[in-house]
């Protein structure tokens, strides 16, 4: 199982690489990795598992964060988060997006970043995405709100991009044109 000690931090070169496409059928190793990424996000939202294994909560995690440069991530929102999305995304793509932007009013955090970095992270408000599941079956879905933000945060990890790369360096809280603010009451 993935623990905090397995998560690479800011400064690690894998976080700045473009991750490789994954081939199907999945190798046993890739399948295990995808399942472990999902297991981490599910456990990281469970009070008892957090205590027991000293996990940091996260709604998503991407393979490069455990030092594997492959295009795989998992996103999971706990049932009572008010969202419903639980996906393993392999070779994910954004096929179209809104002109309107969105940002989290509280800013973003990252399991690979051990400090608080204030500022708005502009994202697309709505996205249509494609990805493959563990069986190599392609699916397509539309996302908005927090799930759309989480998907873009994870997709960035596959492209070597960190959330703070998007923050305006001159004024981290400068108004973002044509954007809606999203507030969340759950962690990360
Ligand atoms: C804020 C946090 C996340 C997504 C969107 C907004 C995920 C945090 C956990 N991760 O570091 C995942 O890459
Ligand atoms: Ni992250």
UniProtKB/TrEMBL annotation:
Name any one Pfam family assigned in the record.
Pep_deformylase
Q: Which Enzyme Commission number(s) are on file for it?
A: 3.5.1.88
Reaction catalysis annotation: N-terminal N-formyl-L-methionyl-[peptide] + H2O = N-terminal L-methionyl-[peptide] + formate
Q: Could you provide one GO biological process annotation from this protein's UniProt record?
A: translation
Instruction: Cite the active-site annotation.
Output: 154
Protein origin, superkingdom: Bacteria
The cross-references to InterPro entries, in alphabetical order and at most eight, read:
Peptide_deformylase, Peptide_deformylase_sf
Q: How is the cofactor bound?
A: Binds 1 Fe(2+) ion.
Cofactor names from the entry are: Fe(2+)
Which GO molecular function annotations are given, in alphabetical order?
A: metal ion binding; peptide deformylase activity
The positions annotated for binding Fe cation are: 110, 153, 157
Tell me, what does this protein do in biology?
Removes the formyl group from the N-terminal Met of newly synthesized proteins. Requires at least a dipeptide for an efficient rate of reaction. N-terminal L-methionine is a prerequisite for activity but the enzyme has broad specificity at other positions.
Task: List, alphabetically, the NCBIfam families matched.
Answer: pept_deformyl (TIGR00079)
PANTHER family, per this entry? PEPTIDE DEFORMYLASE, PEPTIDE DEFORMYLASE 2
UniProt-recorded name of the protein: Peptide deformylase
